[in-house]
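Hi support team,

I submitted a single chain yesterday and got back a structure, but I'm not sure I'm reading the token output correctly. Could someone confirm the output below corresponds to the sequence I sent? I've pasted both exactly as they appear in my results page.

Thanks,
R.
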Amino acid sequence: MQQQILHLLCTAGTCRLHFSGREHQLTAGCCMIAMASHVGNICPSPDCQMLQLLLPAEQQASCMPSSSYGICGWLHLFMHPIFQLEGDALAVVEHDFKDVAFRSEHTPDDYRQEAVLQGMRALYLDVMNAHAALFEHEEATLRAADIMSRFIRMLEGGSYRQHRTVAYYAEQLCVTSKHLHRVSAQVSGRAPSYWIQQFTVMEINHLLRHGKLTAKEVAARMNFDSTSHFSRYIRGGISATHGEV
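Hi R., thanks for writing in. Yes, this is the structure output for that exact sequence:
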């Protein structure tokens, strides 16, 4: 199934939802950008007003700024997917959401996809600009940004379901494990093992909560060599499990 990126902007009221194993509440001015498959149990209040956009994950790369700031910005969005906007930043991002929706509804079929992507590019630039004011970004070298970008794209593609060692990703990227660790720390402030675990934990949490699968079935799907290994893994990263492990 094709992965999609969910973009939410709450403009009034409140909305409760589950993300990454925890319940969150969006209030007016809250923006959220995350994989749609990792968001569940969305419960808006009666007075909630929400703007929503879905973008195929494979198209997200074409919407990102081409500079290394784009890679850093994406990673910071991944680390802080829910953030509060106000003032001019909120007005600009709200305009971008509405502009993309308008393009989607009113652009002729032959040009709709490109028009929507152009609108999404503007949205990401404005979101990253606002996000940078809330969470400090550090500029990375172009080479480091390229390595980190390819590493994250491999994870987005689902490689973590079969491979969860830093050595594997370093080999695929034609660098040493030490170099990948250094690049990841420089660009994101986190070790590569952190990103592997984050993607894995979110997938497991989603399957346990919403997939109607037993722990044994999830362990097999995620290529754990035993249920006991799977049990030890999730105890370190997931607060709630589905059934008995």
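A quick pointer for reading it: The first strand starts at residue 4 and ends at 12. Let us know if anything else looks off.

Best,
Support desk
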